[in-house]
Write a structure and sequence with these properties.
mainly alpha; 434 Repressor (Amino-terminal Domain)
């Protein structure tokens, strides 16, 4: 998965992607062109949950995971 595709999936915002993953924006900037494999898995899991729940709000899904 390309980093730019992951960013687009989360509102075209590095900040939103970082929030969804619980990491800093700086960490995302270190990825380069490709998302690291474990982050790619995490992103796919969030997308799958979002689709399953029919939720557009990634923050709500992330909060559910934290609970």
């Amino acid at each position: 998965m390309k980093t730019e595709d992951a960013i687009k999936e989360f509102g075209n915002s590095v900040r939103e992607l970082a929030q969804a993953l619980g990491i800093t924006r700086e960490a995302i900037y270190q990825w380069g062109e490709e998302v690291p494999p474990l982050r790619m898995y995490q992103i796919r899991e969030i997308i799958a949950r979002r689709e399953k729940l029919g939720a557009d709000d990634t923050a709500a899904i992330t909060q559910q995971e934290a609970a």
